[in-house]
Write a structure and sequence with these properties.
- With 702 residues, this protein is of the alpha/beta class.
- It has 24 helices and 30 strands.
- The chain has a 7-stranded mixed β-sheet, with helices on both faces.
- The longest helix is centred in the N-terminal third of the chain and has 17 residues.
- It is flat and about 100 Å long.
- It starts with a helix and ends in a 6-residue tail after the last strand.
Length: 702
């Protein structure tokens, strides 16, 4: 469906318009305020005119088919009015009212009825349960709040939100950016977030796109749109709610959609170069950074201040957030101290107060860090408000002039940052904007925005490529679950290191295998139908001799026989006992919408209780495995600790890459893979997979 009639109509019919107030009146007044040059058709059988504009008793009596019909009426009346709109040839619609799919039951049926009519007519629809659309660039609006200052709204940010209140919040503060298009999408009965994304990617007035997303309804198109936006050089900034079970239940009742896995979605955004933020503060700062004439080309940030205490606060926050604040080199420090005097700390944040000569010291500090190749953006931290009650008023403009002068001779972006998000001086904002510069706010939000844009500008590393091993596909087609022994044989063909072990059927064979492997050993029951052996007491570890093995064999055999249904393929597995090493896990799982992802984390309670793991979508890119290992809170356990040598992280990364390659090459057949635990041995001694499980995709019945 073409969205032009929906987002920039030239004729607007408002069903339910009145003089008394409500959304219909607000739309008519706003169309006048915004400078709309098209035709307005109020529709209401009770009135001859509305706001001195001729009012029509029915859609069927309009003199022409309108581009768009705005339904400012209650939901029970909408199906009949939609039929009339289709009959009259209307090309788009906006439905404000709620009480549809978000309530389920009859509400969902009502929404389906309306959506079916619209789809059959090829009619894009915004809503239901929405605020409408504001297009200040085209001087048209169906947004149901009054537009007070049209000139102040115009800008380059495209907003698509499934929450009307989020649209209200973003539009309430346009000091640092304006809007090319704002869409309150609501339940998305017909026209969806991805449709608006596609429109904004092609829209020449849009430079950056902001979305608030509860539900992704067309995953494959959504992913393609993210890729297209990245290729077009337009950042897509995303808030995705639904990280907790309570939020997921709330989303279902709010828009009638399902939230999906938040960790998988985060991995998807990273893989397709979208920018994920956690709240509106963070989103606002990223949108502000995008207004600069230059964007950060990488993650290196230099923070210049006139305060030692503030430098320490910023360094604490930046370190906790994993931001890149490169310190001064010895040469840079010497040059800085030649003019400024003694510098505390490592020079980033750079406390440039020194000898107290502010007018000389701050510019000199910025000139020093500007020459550092590791620095991609430079900011000066100084607070100001619209109504300062202390300090020198002239300092407001001095800071702007100082940054403008520094930026004029540099290829790097410069910023003025206040320590608190949203607290800033309007005259500074305007002065910085005139120079192509930006004011940002919040030591967490502002610095985070520079880091996010630096990551975005740096782009993505190449997708890893490797040749598939042939002959494995048939083994994955026949069985729904593949037991540990057979799973390891398949995985080892990709270079994944596995334990030495033998599958046996008798006690005598078990004793022979243990002697061949060398004690101590582990004894397990393996079967395709027993995925979790430990819970059933079917594992015995650290068996040191024949006697231990004989007793364990008898015990496991007895437990096997007591199972409600003894698996026909059950066998014993004699395995080397790996006593040393740090336990970690790796696994592959399939999201029904977005496909395969790889998870990595520390073993034991770290995954079960602390949920300490990192995730990436497949296929992996260069550097992903190393980054995943480093991201986990427990990664420090793999380093040298209290005299214990460091673990072999390099071999662990190779194992993760091999697992990812195996899964990606057999993506159509894989539902889950579980390597738990993997024992990471000391440096240069490798790692080894102790247990493994493969679950295949169910074969579709023809």
């Amino acid at each position: 469906m073409k969205l032009d009639p929906l987002v920039k109509p030239r004729s607007v019919a408002i069903v339910g318009a009145t003089d008394r107030g409500g959304p219909g009146r607000a739309v008519i007044e706003s169309l006048g305020a915004i400078g709309f040059t098209g035709t307005i058709y109020p529709v209401n059988p009770k009135y001859p005119t509305v706001l001195n504009i001729e009012c029509y008793p029915s859609l069927t009596e309009l003199p022409e088919a309108p581009d768009i019909v705005v339904f400012s009426i209650r939901n029970p009346l909408i199906p009949e009015q939609m039929r009339l709109a289709v009959k009259r040839g209307a090309r788009a619609a906006v439905i404000y009212d709620s009480g549809f799919a978000e309530l389920g039951g009859d509400g969902a049926k009502l929404q389906d009825e309306i959506a079916a009519m619209a789809r059959e007519a090829g009619m894009p629809v915004c809503g239901p349960n929405c605020m409408g659309i504001l297009n200040p660039q085209a001087r048209v609006t169906t947004y149901k709040q009054n537009v007070r200052d049209p000139a102040a709204i115009v800008g380059n940010v495209g907003i698509v939100s499934q929450s009307g209140s989020v649209c209200i919040a973003l539009l309430s503060d346009l000091r640092r950016f304006g809007v090319s298009l704002s869409v309150s999408a609501g339940n998305e009965a017909v026209t969806r977030t991805v449709d608006y994304l596609d429109y904004l990617i092609d829209d020449p007035n849009t430079k950056v796109i902001a979305t608030f997303t509860e539900t992704v309804r067309e995953p494959e198109r959504y992913v393609a749109a993210l890729d297209r936006a990245a290729d077009a050089g337009k950042p897509v900034v995303v808030i995705k709610v639904g990280r907790t079970e309570r939020t997921q239940r709330a989303i279902t009742s709010h828009t009638g959609g399902l939230a999906g896995s938040s960790r998988v979605f985060s991995g998807l955004l990273r893989a397709h170069r979208a920018i994920e933020v956690n709240d509106l503060d963070e989103m606002t700062e990223v949108l502000a950074v995008c207004q600069g004439k230059r964007w950060p080309r990488g993650r290196g940030i230099s923070v210049v201040t006139g305060s030692g205490g503030l430098s320490e606060l910023i360094l604490d926050n930046a370190t906790a957030a994993g931001l890149d604040l490169p310190p001064l080199s010895a040469e840079e420090r010497a040059e800085a101290e030649r003019v400024i005097g003694r510098i505390t700390g490592d020079g980033n944040p750079f406390d440039a107060w020194g000898n107290g000569n502010y007018a000389v010291n701050i510019p000199h500090a910025m000139s020093v860090v500007d020459k550092n190749d590791r620095i991609d953006s430079i900011l000066y931290c100084a607070d100001a408000s619209n109504d300062p009650i202390i300090g020198q008023p002239s300092r407001v403009f001095e800071n702007v002039d100082m940054l403008t002068k520094a930026a004029s001779t540099s290829e790097k972006p410069y910023y003025l940052m206040s320590t608190r998000s949203g607290v800033m001086n309007r005259k500074q904002i305007d002065g910085m904007r005139d120079a192509g510069l930006v004011v940002i706010g919040g030591t967490r939000q502002g610095l985070g925005a520079l880091d996010r844009m630096g990551r975005w500008s740096a782009g993505l590393t190449p997708v890893r490529t490797s040749a598939p091993r042939h002959g494995l596909a048939d083994a994955l087609k026949v069985r729904r679950t593949i037991n540990e022994f057979d799973a390891k044989r398949l995985l080892s063909s990709y270079g994944i290191p596995v334990t030495q072990e033998q599958r046996v059927a008798t006690e005598a064979d078990a004793l022979a295998a243990a002697r061949a492997l060398g004690y101590p050993v582990v004894l397990k029951i393996v079967s395709d139908t027993i995925a979790h052996k430990t819970e059933l007491g079917l594992v015995a570890v650290n068996l040191k001799n024949d006697a231990d093995l004989t007793r364990a064999y008898a015990r496991l055999h007895e437990r096997l026989e007591k199972l409600e249904s003894r698996p026909a393929d059950a066998a014993f597995l004699v395995q080397e006992f790996v006593a040393d090493g740090i336990e970690v896990f790796a696994g592959v799982s399939r999201d029904p919408d977005f496909g395969l992802s790889l998870a990595f984390g520390m073993g034991g309670i770290a995954i079960e209780v602390m949920r300490d793991f990192a995730l990436r979508m497949l296929p992996l890119r260069d550097g992903d495995a190393e980054a995943m290992i480093a991201e986990t809170r427990g990664a420090a356990l793999l380093g040298a600790v209290r005299g214990r040598p460091a673990s072999d992280v390099k071999s662990l990364a190779a194992c993760l890459y091999a697992l990812a390659d195996f899964a990606w090459h057999h993506a159509a057949a894989i539902a889950e893979i579980d390597l738990n635990p993997i024992k990471v041995l000391r440096e240069n001694r490798g790692c080894v997979v102790v247990d493994a499980l493969i679950v295949t995709q169910p074969t579709e019945k023809k």
